[in-house]
Amino acid sequence: MSKPNFKDTFPWPPECTSQQQIDYKQILDANRSTLTAFIASEKLPESFYAVMEQHILPLSVWLLMELQGFPYRSHPCPIIGITGAQGSGKTTITSALSMMLGLLGVRCCTLSIDDFYLTKSARQQLGLSVHPLLATRGVPGTHEIALLDTVVEQLLSATDQSKTTYPRFNKAIDDRFPESAQNEFVGRPDMILLEGWCIGARPENADSLLQPINILESSEDPDATWRNYVNAQLADNYAALFNKIDLQIFLAVAGMEVVFKQRTLQEQKLRDTRNTDGHSGKNPDENPGEYQAALDSDDALRRFIMHYERITQNLLRDMPGAANFCLRIGDQHQIEAVGVNWDSSSEQEIALLVFSDLDGTLLDHDNYSFEAAKPALTRLRDKHIPLILNSSKTAAELLSIRQSMHNNHPFIVENGSALYIPVDYFNEHFPEQGKKVGFKEDDFKIVTFGADYRQILNVLEELRTKFNYQFTGFNDFSVQQLADNTGLSPEQAALSKQRAASEPIIWQDSDERLREFLTRLEQQQLSTLQGGRFLHVLGNTDKAQPIHYLLERYQQTWNRVVWRSIALGDSKNDAAMLQASDYPVVVKNPHATPFQLDRDGILYTEEIGPAGWNQAMQTLLTKYLSN
């Protein structure tokens, strides 16, 4: 990145319209009392409300836009790195961002690298075994970074019921609070705010470490043992964690003298918060009798800050050009200027959607198992790529199949007749079209594309009575008869009979009469699809219509990526779905010759059923992920 152009106030995202800006400011005005209380609790001046309006709100909208374009990348929610030198105000800015994002409907978990400092005894042991300077908290190597990484991973995989606990550090006694006072986050965050003075810092080359930059390094680390150890830590576990950061915010101060000035005020504030009863006003676990007396003098504080100086200087030099957002902080803690380093001309990221038929494709044609496809299914879940089942089966059937596959994405039933979307999946409201069938009201939003099931049965019965057509439909079978004709278990057959918008039939009449029958169905605004075993009678829809609808939904909701689709099927009733996809796959069907599509780029599998599905998906994912 090149260094950003700085402005007096934070610019809005380019895709944020004037009306949207007005709407966001109205949210701010509607919550003025909440913001005023926050400003008072943080002991900030009343003028900070203007900071919230001019800087924090637009920055929050940038992060909201990132969230909307984020799902299904390498991890489930964005990780925002917030970096600033000691005394730059990063903790206050982070708290303000978290509050503002909360008002915009974004649930944030804030992690501070300071809470993951090694215990005092662990640092003392490190000072004895490696170098005495490591007994002082601050530099890479003095944090329990593996624990921080574990907490991040726990948050990324959390459910709505999860409880993620992590330590709290008490700077007044230079040690952790007891476990009874540790932090806890309940549920799954929409966004992780990871703040700390060295978040995103990169290691130096070995030659740069040879020359000391201050008296601490020259007198107490003459052979560079300490700084080489710190640099090695920064290149190892710290780099692995920092590589997970999706967007970086940097609070830039003018130089180390500002750091010293602000940190002096910070230490004075920490001392002033102590009550006369022997405890801090903020937490009774803080014991001022054990307060770091070593930081009570300017000389001691300056020596302490020297521990941070090398990495801080590197951050001040490099981070303005590397961070996505840079806030220039004055010596009075005010935001003097802001810059956005966002290359809008760069190529948009590609995100994948996978649409799949079931019988004979993802499920074995004979035993309905998907065992052979599990490696690719696991890979899809790990990469957070949505798998949308698009089947002739009913919603009742698909619910149990989705559960067995650990799938929580939308699904399409009865050959494109209806689309079931989990409530709040797209984090937006849209009008429901059609009826809910056999589900609790809050489980799904259902969009219908075909005719009503009762309407279809009435037409079929009328044609059979009037013209004596010979066919048998699912509605004609008992549960046991249906099980006998399909190979389904009685339980599965019962689910298959819970239909919403289509009727599979077995045609038992002549081919000539079939053509006549199809014509009469068309006159009644009904269509048919020939499946592997049954002729499906449905409204004027197919497996492609819900795909077009869903692609538009994904693109509208997460518009910072370009969505591309993979579709997999094994029979002619999948043709429309395959035609509608960017990457069509025809899975080999042992009971039929491969059908042809009038288009390029079709992948035909050599293996059959779920083994072929797995083969094709592994090939496409390897190609996609390598790009």
Beta-strand residue percentage: 15-25%
C-alpha end-to-end distance: 21 Å
| SS field, number of helical segments | 20
Largest sheet: 7 strands, mixed
Report Rg.
Answer: 31 Å
Please give the share of residues in helix: 25-40%
Could you give the order of strands across the largest sheet?
A: 1-11-10-9-2-8-3
Structural class: alpha/beta
Uncertain residue ranges = 275-293, 429-441
Average predicted confidence as pLDDT: 85
Give a count of the beta strands, DSSP E runs of length 2 or more: 23
Looking at the structure, what is the overall shape?
Answer: elongated
Report on the architecture of this protein.
The protein is an alpha/beta fold and 627 residues long. Helices cover 39% and strands 18% of the residues. A 7-stranded mixed β-sheet has the order 1-11-10-9-2-8-3, with helices on both faces. A 5-stranded parallel β-sheet has the order 13-12-21-22-23. The protein has a 4-stranded antiparallel β-sheet with strand order 17-18-20-19, with helices on one face. Strand 10 (325-329) and strand 11 (335-340) form a beta hairpin. The longest helix is centred in the middle third of the chain and has 25 residues, at 298-322. It starts with 5 loop residues before the first strand and ends with a helix. 38% of the residues are buried.
Short synopsis of the structure:
The protein is of the alpha/beta class and 627 residues long.
Topology:
Layout: E1 6-7, H1 18-30, H2 32-41, H3 48-68, E2 79-84, H4 90-103, E3 108-112, H5 120-129, H6 145-156, E4 163-166, E5 169-170, E6 175-176, E7 183-186, E8 191-196, H7 215-220, H8 225-235, H9 237-242, E9 247-252, H10 256-272, H11 298-322, E10 325-329, E11 335-340, E12 349-356, H12 374-382, E13 387-389, H13 395-404, E14 411-413, E15 418-422, E16 444-448, H14 453-467, E17 471-473, H15 479-486, H16 490-496, E18 502-507, H17 511-523, E19 526-530, E20 535-539, H18 545-557, E21 561-569, H19 575-579, E22 583-588, E23 603-608, H20 609-626
Parallel strand pairs: 2-8, 2-9, 3-8, 9-10, 12-13, 12-21, 21-22, 22-23
Antiparallel strand pairs: 1-11, 4-7, 5-6, 10-11, 14-15, 15-16, 17-18, 18-20, 19-20
